[in-house]
Amino acid sequence: MTEVPFQRGMSYGYRGGRGGYALADVERDAAEMASWGIDSVALHVHLAQETFASTRLFADIRATASDEELVAAIGAFRSHGIRVMLKPMVESQDSAWQGSIRFPDDGNEQIAGIRTAYWAAWFASFTEWLAHYARLAERSGVEVFCVGCELVGTMDQSALWTTAIQAVRAEFSGAVTYNTDHSALHAPRDWFQGLDLLSISYYVSVASGPGESVEQMRATLAPLADELGEQAEALGMPVIFGEIGARSRVGTATLPWDYQTRAPYSGQEQADYLEAILSTFWERPWWRGLYWWKWEERQSRPLYREDPAGDTGFTLQGKPGQGTLSSWYRGAGR
User: Fold this and answer.
1) Rounded to the nearest 5 degrees, what angle is found at the Cα of 174, between the Cα atoms of 172 and 175?
2) Contact by Cβ (8 Å): 112, 69
3) Residue 64 CB contacts under 8 Å (≥ 6 apart), including other chains
4) Pick from 316, 267, 281: which is nearest to 200 by CA?
5) Residue 258 CB burial class (10 angstroms; 0-12, 13-18, ≥19)
6) What's the whole-number mean pLDDT along residues 315-329?
7) How far apart are CA 247 and CA 215, in angstroms?
8) CB 329 within 8 A of CB 316
9) Domains plus CATH for the chain?
10) Angle at 229 between CA 225 and CA 230, to 5 degrees
């Protein structure tokens, strides 16, 4: 098992698309990240399939960054002392959440003589792409490789996941993780044991209403953190929050995963949420850090710009949360 250092992370490039990693832009962003104390970045690459029920994955000419872009971006981050977690993201072009990807069991025969191996076909395509990006990660000096994110409908395919992880390890010598939703630790899969650490999309409600104090949020978080620690100990590996975020809006701590609700700007509530998370988890030995969702907004979200008081999206630049994150990331410890 590869030892994984503490990660002061940030998510970068989600839905970046072809041409989305222009080197000058990445260099500028990497320099700013380093000034915040960010030492790790989750670098996204869009891996497409036509619909949630498709069995073939492909690089889309518009949505998928080229290999050359990725290699250059990785080099730019590493030149600023920022470690890279390469994170291929399976995205259905019909806009369905990746957790919706699922199929009938292989060999489900309703018409005599016709058997369609849906799972075998999907995983064969998926594994081929994982191996491709694992090779790219290895030659580029990437430190962590994420084999999947929130692929909830696939997670019971233990043998196929084991084969996929083995294919990645055949090409990549760094740490290997998978990014699940936080509920998965209530029923961990046996193939998790092929990983070096488990990543979690940790979007949990920490307030009963708008405007709660940091101490009130911490009181809500404490038992959740204790339970998560027990689950991590039983799993026998460290845990990171591969995704965690909250918008800068009123009520954000009640629904940190929400990206659609119209609400007034509140940079302070976003900052308080972040303070509660960091102060609750920072010293827990099984916890190895987080990747904030996210550095930039690359999708068109007009509702985030409706309040003249400020942007109500997930980003931190120019908001109180920037100071909160930077204070923790640049501070001593861990």
Assistant:
1) 115
2) no
3) 17, 18, 45, 46, 47, 48
4) 281
5) middle
6) 98
7) 19
8) no
9) 7-107+116-329 (3.20.20.80)
10) 120
| CA 82/CA 87 separation, integer angstroms | 15
The residue type at 278: L
Q: Tens digit of pLDDT for each residue in 28-78? A: 999 999 999 999 999 999 999 998 988 899 999 999 999 999 999 999 999
Higher pLDDT, 130 or 98: 130
Residue matched to tokens 């290895």? 138
Is there a contact between 150 and 97 (Cβ–Cβ < 8 Å)? yes
* Residue 268 DSSP SS3: helix
Query: How far, in Å, CA of 88 to CA of 133, rounded?
Result: 8
Please say whether the beta carbons of 150 and 180 come within 8 A.
yes
Determine the residue type at 121: A
What whole-number distance in Å separates Cα of residue 126 and Cα of residue 145?
Answer: 15
Alpha helices in the chain (DSSP H): 23-36, 67-79, 118-140, 158-171, 214-235, 267-281, 320-329
**Lookup result for tokens 């976003």:** 270
List the beta bridge partners of residue 233: none
Contact status, residue 210 vs residue 250, Cβ threshold 8 Å: yes
From 329, 319, 332, 254, select the one nearest 9 (Cα to Cα): 329
Tokens 């509140």 correspond to 266
Report how far residue 254's alpha carbon sits from residue 246's, in angstroms, rounded to the nearest whole number.
9
Instruction: Please choose, from the candidates 38, 74, 50, the residue with its C-alpha nearest in 3D space to the C-alpha of residue 292.
Output: 38
Q: Is 176 left (phi over 0), alpha (psi -120 to 50) or beta?
A: beta
pLDDT band at 285 (very low <50, low <70, confident <90, very high): very high
**CB crowding 23-53: b at 16 or more within 10 Å, else e:** eeebbebbeebeebebbbbbbbbbbbbeebe
Could you tell me which residues are beta bridge partners of residue 289?
A: 7
Tokens representing 278? 């960091």
